[in-house]
């Protein structure tokens, strides 16, 4: 966990976050039926290079792609390749970059036409849960309160949190302390502190709380094969409203 207090470091973090936000804007616009996930990844690699940044998953974990692209029952860490996006696919675009010594991380879910009503409801639930959690994230707040807010939204909609997949500290590396769960558990009683950088990322499924690892050793999928959605932001905790680093103002 890194507490960021110096203005110059906040500015660097913000610039890093804006690279991610801009990439997500451009990449999600390219998610269409008939496009390969390798093509999306190639675009991402060029954008990262143009920004003078690095792919954090590739650098830290030797991930075989510049970004993660996960389809349908794939929740996270999908490997880009020759797979062709199909009509009706649910595509999670997860971008994590390193720039000026800092790392930021964000994700969006894209629904390819024709959109399944259940997929639309699930995506809306993920995004609503994220917005609710962001509104609570400030200095002094117990981490379990973030999980409670997310799980309350999810249960009300009849969906499920994938409990092994959580938000986390971020900054100098991709995954730092603290763990930020998407469910209620009073054992997560550490409190957020001003200067802390974390991700909040509701990762949901239609009908399971469990995941399995695909044969590729990277991709995490829903255990029952049901659809999954994922929305995420990196944020800087303050005494008041957080600074959403991966959101354009």
Q: Tell me the span between the first and last alpha carbons.
A: 26 Å
Helix-strand string: HHEHEEEEHHEEEEEEEEEE
- As for the CATH topology, it is Creatine Amidinohydrolase
Main sheet specs: 4 strands, antiparallel
Taken as a percent bin, the fraction of beta residues is: 15-25%
Total beta-strand segments? 15
| Assembly annotation | single chain
Mean pLDDT: 97
Structural class: alpha+beta
Radius of gyration in whole Å, from Cα?
Answer: 17 Å
Tally of domains: 1
Q: What is the name of the CATH superfamily?
A: Creatinase/methionine aminopeptidase superfamily
CATH class, named Alpha Beta
Q: What CATH architecture would you give?
A: Alpha-Beta Complex
Low-confidence stretches: none
**Shape call:** globular
Q: State the helical fraction.
A: 25-40%
Number of helices: 5
How would you describe the overall organization of this protein?
The chain is 31% helix and 24% strand. Strands 1, 2, 4 and 5 form a four-stranded antiparallel β-sheet that branches. Strands 3-12-11 form a three-stranded antiparallel β-sheet, with no helix packed on it. The chain has one domain (7-244): Creatinase/methionine aminopeptidase superfamily (Creatine Amidinohydrolase). It has helices spanning 7-29, 37-50, 56-61, 117-136, 143-157, and strands at 54-55, 68-71, 74-76, 90-99, 102-111, 160-161, 167-169, 176-180, 197-200, 203-205, 211-213, 220-222, 228-230, 233-236, 243-244. α4 packs antiparallel against α5 (143-157). The chain starts with 6 loop residues before the first helix and ends in a 5-residue tail after the last strand. The protein has 249 residues and is of the alpha+beta class.
